[in-house]
Amino acid sequence: MPYITIKQPPAYIQLTFEQVITGIEDLSQYVNHNTSNTRTYFTEKVNPKLLENTNIDHMIGLLRSFNQTHEALFDKDRNSLYKTFYIPKSSGGLRRIDAPEPELMNALRQLKILMEENMFALYHTSAFSYIKGRCTVDAIKRHQKNESRWFLKLDFSNFFGSTTPEFVMKMLSMIFPFSEIAKNPGGREELSKALSLCFLNGGLPQGTPISPLLTNIMMLPIDHRLSNSLRSFERKRAIYTRYADDILISCKYDFDKDKIQKFVLETLRTFDAPFTIKPEKTRYGNSAGRNWNLGVMLNKDNEITIGHKKKKHFKAMLDGYVRTKKSGEGWELHDVQVLSGLVSYYRMIEREYIDYVIKTYSEKNQFDIESSIKADLSA
Fold first, then answer.
1. Res 18: pLDDT
2. Which ranges constitute the DSSP H helices of the chain?
3. CB-CB contact of 350 with 305 (8 Å)
4. Which residue from 162, 167, 256, 293 has the least number of CB within 10 angstroms?
């Protein structure tokens, strides 16, 4: 009973559930659409035509070739293949990053490409982290579109570090075409061996190119159950999104947060997920208050905003940049890159406001801010 995920087809192609079960003959035509939305189906059995046209033996052969190519890595002490450092968390404290050495980094990049391009590795449409064409703002837009007023935020504890090889294999065994690879004894052995390179001290390290992909694939059944069930939970339409370990559930109306949290925990237990929820990060409230999620605010007027403090800080940065440049001096490259990044990011959230501020400051100071930033970045 696998989960089959495809990219959302163009509007002129309307697939029904029955077509997925009986009509899709080749998944490759449904994995490369420009849209980042996906559709996931839970089926009793895989359509025989789809099985016939999915070359599982070829996939197993690719895994075997990968393992043979990188055979030397399997015998090395795994800790010796990483450099460990720490970066500050936005919420305070330090985040551990384990960055692979070049030899392992190259292997993990190859495995990631192999899974994406040859094994149709996708994600649930409710997942937004580490996905090309998706960002935190896109996740919040889902809730905005629903005109949600009440929000429940849940956070997994040690999401990457708690993810075990056994859990990943169990979940992949439910997801097509990995489910078919795992049914083959030789295929399961090759898949398990290849995946073993992705783990460090029993968990997924943060800092590798494949850890984010694996978390999005393995969460597919959980995302599917939560998203589908919450759409009509106790006759109220709730919206579910997940950004890595950050879950956001919202509704137009006040809802029983304890019942929904209990349902989330029951779903995790159903799949034997090795995750716990951080009680100190759990939050419930409405958009009339300080409704900050994923770094942005969805306010009482159902507008996504960066907030007053960030706007004030952004103006101060622009003013400082202009004054420094007009005095004949300049900013360090890193500082210019930070400013440029903020301009791009804030424009995704409040384009009209950011354009207005930049235009106002440029005209006021008779100084072309954006041209100057571009020149500094290319210098």
1. 47
2. 17-22, 48-53, 56-69, 71-74, 102-118, 136-145, 159-162, 165-172, 178-183, 185-196, 211-218, 220-230, 257-270, 308-326, 333-365, 369-378
3. yes
4. 256
Q: Which single residue is written with the structure tokens 């795992």? A: 182
What are the residue ranges in the chain where pLDDT is below 50?
12-13, 17-22
Exposure class string for 173-192: b at 16+ Cβ within 10 A, else e: bbbbbbbbbbeeeebbebbb
Residue whose token pair is 């159950």: 225
325-354 core/surface letters (b: 16 or more CB in 10 A; e: else): beeeeebeeeebeebeebbebbeebbeeeb
What pLDDT shows up at residue 21?
A: 46
Residue whose tokens read 């791009």: 344
pLDDT given at position 22: 44
pLDDT of 67: 98
Calpha distance 63→59 (Å, rounded): 6
pLDDT reported for residue 12: 44
Report the interhelical angle of 211-218 vs 220-230 (nearest 10°): 50
Please give the C-alpha separations between residue 367 and each of 169, 323, 358, 362, 379, in angstroms, as whole numbers: 57, 10, 10, 5, 18
Residues 245, 158: Cα–Cα separation, whole Å: 8
pLDDT at 14: 52
Q: Indicate the residue type of 89.
A: K
State residue 161's pLDDT score.
95
Q: What is the reported pLDDT for 322?
A: 95
CA separation for the pair 242, 122 (Å, rounded)? 15
332 Cβ contact list (under 8 Å, min separation 6): none
DSSP 236-285: B-EEEEEETTEEEEEESS---HHHHHHHHHHHHHHTT----B-GGG-EEE
The closest alpha carbon to 322, from 351, 350, 364, 352, belongs to 364
DSSP state of 210: S
pLDDT at residue 92, rounded to an integer? 72
Residues 6 or more apart whose Cβ sits within 8 Å of residue 64? 186, 190
| CA pair distance 19, 16, nearest whole angstrom | 5
- Give the pLDDT confidence score for residue 250 in this predicted structure: 97
